[in-house]
What does this fold into?
Amino acid sequence: MCRNIKTLHNFEPPATDEEVRASALQFVRKLSGFAHPSKANQAAFDRAVEQVAQAAHELLGTLVSHAPPRDRAAEAAKARARAAVRFRRQEA
It folds into this structure.
């Protein structure tokens, strides 16, 4: 589940609200063990997602890096190359 949480720091352009919220959602899903909470737990789950997203925004806004910003397209290409090696078909 947590493999879907991506590094959001030091990218140009910066992480969007949607990316931060998606990471927060994955984090709360992992912590709670619920992919889809019950109606009884929905309010607590949603509140946790919003609080984690807010904390993530604050963190990303205060982190400092002296490295040049990473390029999203280059990082995506690296991820595809890693996946191709990881999931390559076994020759019979």
Q: What stands out?
A: Strands lie at 11-12, 70-71.
